[in-house]
Write a structure and sequence with these properties.
Blueprint: H1 3-6, H2 12-23, E1 28-29, H3 30-37, H4 41-53, E2 57-60, E3 63-66, E4 77-81, E5 84-90, H5 96-107, H6 113-124, E6 130-131, E7 135-144, E8 147-157, E9 165-172, H7 181-195, E10 200-206, H8 210-218, E11 222-233, E12 236-245
Parallel strand pairs: 9-10
Antiparallel strand pairs: 1-3, 2-3, 4-5, 5-7, 6-7, 7-8, 8-9, 10-12, 11-12
Length: 247
């Protein structure tokens, strides 16, 4: 399935531009796309800029190409543990609905507040993966068959003073825990962070989520800070624990 078939664009001209680029086997001249669709130059450049901003299209020397047609086989790793075979790979746009569903299910018991906000962002922004001058965002997913069962998300503001850090969230559906999926996702995310020169990765978890805290500590995470009464769930105040990992 092509990305344009599963992705809801907010403007028809933007969708037409992306579909034309996506259907091309190779990079195509931007002017060819504009002329083929009969779009005025200013409107075309605006929509192309939005597609580039949202990480859906790359442009180089006047040539444009789709950024996320699918996951390269070289980027996929398949594992089997205790009778469950699963694949770890970069997320693509067609994973969106499954990814949102998994994040919401994992965060549904109010034990992973940051992940709840990530689900909202994924559900409403046009680009699943983003890389621009403002911030970078990367997702890897674990899949069993065609179904997303886990994720790791890394989000980094492109501010000079914070450019060495990124925030992560990670989760696996309860029925697939105990098969090494969380550890494999964390390894993949930390490898990406190291490749992109991030020095410290942090994760913020409510203190009531003892299993998640134990997981990160078992994988090298260290508690850097505790914010007292940071969350209020119902009438209960809950501390936030910030853990840091170094790739």
């Amino acid at each position: 399935m092509q990305v344009s078939e599963a992705f809801e664009f907010t403007h028809e001209d933007r969708k037409s531009i992306y579909q034309y680029i996506e259907d091309a086997d190779d990079p195509v001249e931007a002017t060819e796309v504009r002329d083929a669709l009969g779009l005025d130059p200013s409107g075309f450049r605006h929509h192309l800029a939005i597609l580039k901003r949202d990480g859906l299209v790359h442009e180089s020397a006047g040539m444009v190409e789709a950024a996320f047609e699918g996951s390269d086989a070289a980027d996929e790793e398949t594992f089997e543990q205790e009778g469950v075979e699963y694949t770890i790979r970069p997320a693509i746009e067609t994973d969106r609905s499954g990814l949102v569903g998994v994040i919401r299910q994992v965060a549904g018991e109010k034990t992973y507040t940051v992940a709840e906000s990530v689900a909202d962002v994924v559900d409403h922004e046009e680009a699943l993966v983003r890389e621009n001058e403002v911030r970078s965002r990367m997702f890897f997913v674990a899949t069993v068959g065609d179904e997303v069962v886990g994720w790791i998300h890394l989000d980094a503001p492109e501010l000079e003073k914070l450019s060495h850090t990124a925030e992560l969230t990670l989760g696996v559906l309860e029925e697939y825990q105990g098969h090494g999926i969380g550890g494999r996702l964390l390894d993949r995310g930390l490898a990406w962070a190291e490749e992109n020169a991030y020095e410290k990765i942090y994760n913020s978890i409510p203190s009531t989520n003892e299993d998640a805290i134990a997981f990160f500590e078992a994988h090298g995470g260290e508690v850097e800070a505790t914010r007292v009464d940071h969350y209020k769930i119902g009438d209960e105040y809950i501390d936030e624990v910030m853990l840091a990992l170094r790739p």
